[in-house]
Specification:
Helices cover 23% and strands 11% of the residues. With 150 residues, the chain is of the alpha+beta class. It folds into two domains: 15-43 and 124-150, no CATH class; 48-121, no CATH class. It has a two-stranded antiparallel ribbon. It has a two-stranded antiparallel sheet with strand order 3-6. The chain is globular and about 55 Å long.
């Protein structure tokens, strides 16, 4: 339970942003921030996803900087997230295995929703498009005071 305090102390924190179970949102808003601060483990032009993780010659979709409103929204079910993270479709049998996360299933899963959706999903906003007032990574902390996507 949250209660208001009559204390006169003020906190430097104005806004707290919590991103839950959606790596794509983090990449869209903050992915390119490593261009401003190399300590941030963000995205860049070298990251890609294959259209098909089972085809070694599959077309690769590279992460770009032309993010836009994505419609239809990619699937957020646990089965879809499993495929996005592990690069393999979820089955009851696969759920019992211990797999290393590859993060290579986003394009493949998006294409199941709609042909061509992978090109839209694999994008983020450049720092000048994601208006941030403060990004602090001292001692491994990242603090975002506010954000606004134009």
């Amino acid at each position: 339970m949250v209660t208001e305090s009559s204390s006169s102390s003020s906190s430097p924190i104005k806004t707290v942003v919590v991103l839950v179970q959606e790596n794509r949102s983090f990449d869209h808003i903050l992915g390119w921030m490593k261009s401003l601060n190399p300590e941030i483990n963000g995205s860049g032009e070298s990251e890609s996803n294959p259209i098909s993780t089972s085809d070694l010659n599959s077309t690769l979709v590279f992460f770009g900087d032309n993010s836009a409103y994505v419609d239809p929204d990619p699937d957020h079910s646990i089965q879809a997230v499993y495929e996005q993270v592990f690069g393999k479709p979820w089955t009851e049998a696969s759920a019992t295995k211990t797999l290393a996360p590859t993060m290579k299933g986003f394009a493949q899963n998006a294409e199941k929703t709609q042909t061509g959706l992978a090109e839209m999903v694999m994008n983020g906003f450049r720092p000048e498009k994601a208006n941030t007032r403060s990004l602090n990574s001292d001692q491994g902390q990242r603090r975002l005071d506010s954000y606004k996507v134009d």
